Fold each of these.
Amino acid sequence: MTPFAHSQPFTVGVEEELLVVDPLTLRLAPSATKILQRMTFAKGDASHEAYAAQIELRSPPSTTSLEAVATLADLRIAAIDVGATLMGVGVHPIGTRGDAALLDDDRYRHVEDTVRGLI
């Protein structure tokens, strides 16, 4: 059994998944790849999520929650600066079934084929 202890200060990391939407209609905009290609960020701080209209932003391990949140704010600004309109919701409020195109990636095609209910 491993005792609960630590030898270094605790750290915290935060991640968020954001939808990319059209600035006028607020409909899903499958432009995550284009947004990520234009953004400037440290390796591991931003990536795709399962859908073509979704990005994931991550703070590195931080010594305080304020530091982690500040990193996410900077990443959101970086995405907005290259043209993204972001929506932080679990489900698109006016989306309909089939609106969310899956990212064209082997990993997510495998998930879709094996556990369709999750996708």
Amino acid sequence: MSFSVQLYQAIDELDPKIRKVLIDLLNEVQVHMSRVATREDFRELKKVVESLAVTTKELAEAQQRTETRVEELAEAQKRTEQRVEELAEAQKRTEKRLDELAEAQKRTEQRVQELAEAQKRTEQRVQELAEAQKRTEQRVEELAEAQKRTEKRLDELAEAQKRTEARLERLAEAQAKTETELRKLVQEHRKTREQLGGLAHTVGYRLEDEAFKALPALLKRDLGVEVLGRLKRDFLEIGKDRYLEVNIYGTGMHDGAECLIIGEAKTQLKKKDVDTFLQKAGQVASLVPKEQVRLLVTYQASPPVQKYVRDQGIFLYFSYDF
């Protein structure tokens, strides 16, 4: 005897344990029916089996709804467990926050204690200031007395000032007389300086005059320079109504070429005189572009100045060389 396809499909959807029991039962029924069942019995059995198939299908559907519900409960359980986990984390944060609040409370209590101590110190300071105020008032009283003495002293100083002003008036008259005498002395000093300046020029001109006579022979002997014409004092025009004074000026021949002889005479030669001469020689070179023979003539020059002159390529002659 065979069963319908619908019956087997319904059986496959049952729980494995139920499916096994039902299959075993059907097998037993089939064996029994093959032995003793009549056609009428078979029809009755077929109705039972069909009823059993319907019941089996209903059981399968109920089983499916049960599994769906179980799945929903499992998901709900997961959500519940997740929520419990979140609540546990929140509880941990709450406990941590409570610990922090407890620590903050301790710090607050400590700060209150510090403020109480500070209040005590403030009250003590206020007491000290009150004492200081008393001393200040006493000091002000003393200063008031001192002010009275100062005013008295100022009156005395005012009288002394009057006497001083009278004394200054007499000193001013004496100063006027002194200034008159000083002006006379200044005038005499100016005359003396003019005389000394004239004497210095005279000495300088005397040195130049001796140089004019002696230099041609010295230049020929020492440098091989032949002086053309004569050496002289001269003024070179450097602009409109502007002239450059040169103490020693002339031309010469050196190694077959014409050269310019330029020099300066100083009674006592100093480094600044050398620098001034070099500047002047540069100006002359821009006016007369010729090879220059540069020389300095003096009565006296210190060893460092002599070395500085020679380092600049300038020839140095002393009055005793003449």
Amino acid sequence: MPATLPYLILALLLSACTQSPAAESNRMTAPDEAASPSRPLVVTELFTSEGCSSCPPADALLAELSEREGVIALSFHVDYWNYLGWSDPYSQEVFSERQRAYARILDGRVYTPELVVNGEVGLVGSNRRLVEAAIGKARETSVALEIGLEMHVQGDVVTANVSIEDVPSDAVLHLALVERSTNQDVQRGENRGRSLSHTNVVRVFETFAAVPGSHPMNLPEDLSPSNASVVAYVQDGEVGLVLGGAIAAL
């Protein structure tokens, strides 16, 4: 009996060695497998204005959001503040109309700075606590629709090649040509004397049927391709739930 004891100990040690790598492998791969499904992407739309003194903090928060993985941050400059002495050079009436369309299905209010998260909720864009909560909820409930986006630039024409499948019949595809970063010295109005920074300012915004295809857009003369990106996102209706999105630099 004493002579066989070393062999028994050796067998037990070998058994432990052969089992531990597999167990370790299971512990390492399980988290990866849990994270492997496509994570819902969150689209945030900030309605802002250089004529609004309460907007710069929201612009700064949007810049932070734009750096986060899984978040697409867009800045829509509205035109209804322009009468106060400063005409926001990035403002467009169509952006004000888009915000009003959201108001009709959300809380009925039109104000700046308003951040709309995934087309589901509108809130004060400078309120970090509310913004973080809304993004967290959107990550849990949003649909993870995959969109393929490839860009081609020839002269002043930007062509977005979009691949998309399995979308609702009433879904639409939005394409936003954005200026990634810009600064503006404001001469008049509520922000007079301030130098304002903006992120992902929407310069061109077009809507199409949510089907695969190629969509040309004209690049604004004052927008350098090196500072531009295109965002493609699908909504269940013009201002409905965001189903998915993608962003690509030119």
